[in-house]
Request: fold
Amino acid sequence: MGAAPGYRPSAWVHLLHQLPRADFQLHPVPSGFAPQEQEYQQALLLVAALAGLGLGLSLIFIAVYLIRFCCCRPPEPPGAKSPPPGGGCVTWSCIAALLVGCAGIGIGFYGNSETSDGVSQLSSALLHANHTLSAIDHLVLEMVERLGEAVRTELTSLEEVLAQRTELVAAARGARRQAEAMAQQLQGLAFWRGVPLSPLQVAEDVSFVEEYRWLAYVLLLLLELLVCLFTLLGLAKQSKWLVIVMTVMSLLVLVLSWGSMGLEAAAAVGLSDFCSSPDAYILNLTQEETGLDSDILNYYFLCNQAVSNPFQQRLTLSQRALANIHSQLQGLEREAVPQFPDAQKPLLSLEETLNVTEGNFHQLVALLHCRGLHKAQSLWAPPQPCVHWQDYGAALRGLCEDALEGLLFLLLFSLLSAGALATALCSLPRAWALFPPRNPSALCSGSHPSEPLLHAGLSP
Reply:
């Protein structure tokens, strides 16, 4: 099965698609995209569970490190005033970890923007496709109504006027039959009418989910940025209470970072499986949801020369009927108007109706071509030249290139964030333990902390 025009799987898609997968019993699972199968769901959950395992190991490592720091610290000799050796290295390692976390936040903002751009491209492609399908339905309905009105009014009046000449009445009735046959053929061209699947609704659902996803990541990024900045401020001011509060907040953000990492890894793996061969899954899902023939779906999704237009026969018959109506009306105008002047008015009205119908028909032919599903066209604008890409390919590029790239950047952000916060959580307790004690009364009087001790030593 061919790929959509203008779309080729990227190197990241091939790389992620080759990763091994296993279910909860550690049995190998094929990498084909099958979200409805339980084994495949378990494989994605297992990928997400790896982040939970990393969170557990990091929490155990931090707990063991802090317990060793608190319980196994050698006692300080009495009267020691100098801080223990290595205090500066601990502080600077904490600062370096926080700066790495800030760099990861920048990567996270870029990845969040790329993911949002990819999903926006998907939604825009769905909206364009919905506009084209609506334009097809509108043109078909308008032409059928015009032809029906012409049959009921102008052609009926024409037959009454020409009742004295049987051969002219037969020509008018032939035009009536051609108009009815054309209307019947046109009704079969509105293939999306009555289909329960609406691209507009899908686009709205995707935009709704993406809006909350984008907002959640922005809040997570801002929360981590505030934690890093206030922690650096606490270290600079040697504020013990601020560093303690930020230590607790760092633990919370660490859990959120590992959780987001699991979601991003599972989403990237599943998206790579989908993007490696999207045509088969999309065709099967669309046929199941809409009930349309596979010939129609193959033509519009693949859009290559190997698949013929399923509406070509109806279009040919409609065009032939339109040409026959024109020729019959021209013959009636030559033969009937000199003998029956009252026939001129319905004939002119019929010619006007046919001219409008012919213009709409040519626009309908352009819209029904598979390459017509490439951008939103005005219902009354002339058909634009088709280009070699369509909404399906644009949606795949947005989802499988921009969105997948954004997910990978978010995954890198979560990894850097988890590493930086784990390092900071190990360093912060040692850093604030080295802060000099503060005497509140001395700070209020503006003297140094050691001044009360000096006065006490000099008094008798």
Observations:
- Residues 374-389, 440-460 have pLDDT under 50 and may be disordered.
- The radius of gyration is 37 Å.
- The first helix runs from residue 11 to 17.
- Residues 193 and 362 are 20 Å apart (CA to CA).
